[in-house]
Amino acid sequence: MAILELPAYVVANAAVFYQIDHFRMALNLNNAFNKTYWVGGFNYARLFPGTPRNFMLSVGYSF
Fold first, then answer.
1. What DSSP state is assigned to residue 14?
2. Where are the transmembrane segments (predicted)?
3. Residue 4 per-residue DSSP state
4. What is the pTM of this model?
5. Which contiguous run of DSSP H or E holds residue 20?
6. What is the pLDDT of residues 8-59, one digit of tens each?
7. In this structure, are residues 38 and 45 in contact, taking their beta carbons and an 8 Å threshold?
8. Ramachandran class of 27: left when φ > 0, alpha when ψ lies in -120 to 50, beta otherwise
9. What whole-number distance in Å separates Cα of residue 48 and Cα of residue 52?
10. Using CA atoms, how far apart are residues 50 and 52, in angstroms rounded to an integer?
11. Is the distance from CB of 40 to CB of 61 less than 8 angstroms?
């Protein structure tokens, strides 16, 4: 039985935010270089890939 050995990986994330008074807006960029990576798996036929590049915009208000 072969042992499942996945390669090491590095994922770059970035974020910027702006705050004025009680409002805050943030933009997050995840997996900036859109690298393929594996977060786990049971065997070589069933591997779980990591999330591709994505953006998240959030708006908040603090009381």
1. E
2. none
3. P
4. 0.74
5. strand 14-20
6. 999 999 999 999 999 999 999 999 999 999 998 888 888 999 999 999 999 9
7. no
8. beta
9. 12
10. 6
11. no
